[in-house]
Design a protein that fits this description.
The protein has 491 residues and is of the alpha/beta class. The protein contains 15 helices and 22 strands. The radius of gyration is 24 Å and the shape is globular.
Length: 491
């Protein structure tokens, strides 16, 4: 189909767009560099208004037939799509690791298999939606989930394949057609996803992928008035711009945005488990929106717990993410590295003290040491803004009221983590922390049936289970008067 391909870790990947069931090139291209070793992976087609409009037009033409299949007609196609992803876990993992620097073992065993699960789960869930009725005294209300139309799906670079399928799965299962805008810093696995969908029998125009820079391809896509849904995962600042575009066309939008999540440790908890989990916040070099980056520790155990965290953090080996022993890989780009380093430098200037780390690691250009800051006041930049790197802050508290006040003292509300040995106390604290997800004595456990999203400036809406279909479908109520038919159904 296209001659514009590259080979990454032995896997051939197209560098062109996927529009209306075929590969489409662009005169403009952008360089895709590996954060692992600085190598040049590809020159990727860089789309703009022409490509975005062509993809939306293709999705609009494909929509009626895809919607008409119904959940039962779409199910076998989406099942094959999921199986296609599952069959290529090794290849997808290898490409994703080179493209964004994430740990290979995490991709193989957890992240990429979740991408397949995302497609399969929502295909199955769509089968359960229709048939819900509400009985009223005068009428019977029949609730239906109608396909909404064309959805633009804009995804981030820290887990591009998994987070793309988290949107693609329910959008397609609901009967919509989609245009994916993958991240320019890590676009390659989304390109492979398009090939896998095509091989599974997803019809032309149902799934489209337009690559490019956010300010051009992304801007052109979200400003297309023929969209029915926009789903975005990324920064709060970018969401403001997308929200303005969506408002002009009254297009429904969901957004999962940044976080500055608290990690609360009470004195009566399992301190060894809590310390290991704190050290785990350095995974993926801290490039995880859900990470608990503000470590809030009950003051009576602060000193011994700090030593446990220090010891656990020292075991977070930095290095090549392809190495099984590595726990912390590189930051994604030089631009992002400089951003993280800038936060660290300003924190020092503000009076915070590095308890460990605080500079570039000597294993490569984009590797930053796992860092912990003490002497942090809650109004400092380092306590208020998302760093998105391996940088945590350490604060203490003496009462539940105090820790809740500290936990809620940011503009965010994405997630939180709480380690506590008293169930009643844990539930009191958890119920008062502003967060879309609050983990108690665990971290990063995600059930696809549960609601997920952010509060405050961490997001708009919820996804997961039926909440995904509340967004990706037009929910209709057919209200039928009882006894109003001369010939009842089935007579």
């Amino acid at each position: 189909m296209t001659t514009n391909t590259v080979t990454v870790e032995g896997v051939e990947v197209s560098t062109d767009h996927w529009i209306d069931g075929r590969r489409v090139s662009s005169a403009e291209r952008f360089a895709d560099m590996s954060p692992v070793d600085g190598s040049h992976l590809a020159d990727v087609a860089s789309g703009g208004r022409a490509e975005a409009d062509a993809a939306v037009d293709a999705a609009r033409r494909a929509f009626p037939a895809w919607a008409a299949l119904g959940p039962e007609g779409r199910l076998p196609i989406l099942k094959r799509f999921a199986e296609g992803l599952r069959a290529r876990v090794g290849e997808l993992s290898a490409v994703e690791t080179m493209d964004n620097g994430s740990l290979l073992m995490a991709n193989v065993h957890r992240v990429v298999p979740r991408a397949a699960q995302n497609i399969e789960f929502f295909a199955d869930w769509a089968m359960t939606l229709d048939g819900h009725t509400i009985d009223s005294p005068e009428v019977v209300n029949h609730v239906k989930y109608d396909p909404a139309g064309v959805a633009a799906l804009i995804t981030p670079w820290n887990a591009p394949l998994m987070l793309t399928t988290w949107k693609v799965g329910p959008a397609l299962a609901a009967g919509n057609t989609v245009v994916v805008k993958p991240p320019e810093w890590a676009p390659l696995t989304c390109s492979l996803m398009a090939d896998i969908a095509h091989a599974a029998g997803v019809p032309a125009g149902v799934l489209n992928v337009v690559q490019g820079i956010g300010e051009t391809a992304g801007d052109a896509l979200v400003n297309n008035p023929d969209l029915n849904r926009i789903s975005f995962t990324g920064s709060t600042d970018t969401a403001r711009l997308i929200g303005q575009a969506a408002a002009r066309s009254i297009t429904a939008m969901s957004a999962e945005l940044g976080g500055k999540s608290p990690f609360i440790v009470c004195a009566d908890t399992d301190l060894d488990a809590a310390a290991q989990t704190v050290a785990g916040q350095y995974n993926n070099a801290g490039q995880v929106c859900l990470a608990g980056t503000r470590i809030l520790v009950e003051d009576s155990i602060a000193a011994p717990f700090l030593e446990k965290v220090r010891e656990a953090s020292q075991r977070m080996t930095l290095g090549d993410p392809r190495d099984k022993a590595t726990r912390v890989g590189p930051l994604i780009t030089r631009e992002h590295f400089d951003r993280v380093a800038g936060f660290v430098d300003r924190a020092r200037t503000d009076g915070a003290t590095p308890l460990w780390g605080g500079s570039r690691a000597d294993v490569g250009a984009l590797y930053f040491q796992p860092t912990m800051f003490g002497d942090v006041a809650s109004d400092m930049e380092i306590a208020q803004k998302e760093v998105f790197g391996p940088v945590l802050i350490w604060q203490t508290f003496s009462s539940d009221d105090e820790v809740i006040a500290i936990a809620n003292n940011t503009r965010y509300g994405l997630a939180g983590t709480l380690f506590c040995g008293d169930e009643a106390r844990a539930m009191r604290i958890a119920s008062r922390v502003v967060a879309g997800t609050l983990w108690v004595n665990c971290f990063f456990v995600r059930d696809l049936a549960a609601p997920f999203g952010g509060s405050r400036q961490s997001g708009i809406g919820r996804e997961g289970g039926s909440w995904s279909f509340d967004f990706y479908a037009d929910i209709k109520n057919i209200s039928v008067r009882k006894g109003g038919f001369k010939t009842p159904t089935g007579a």
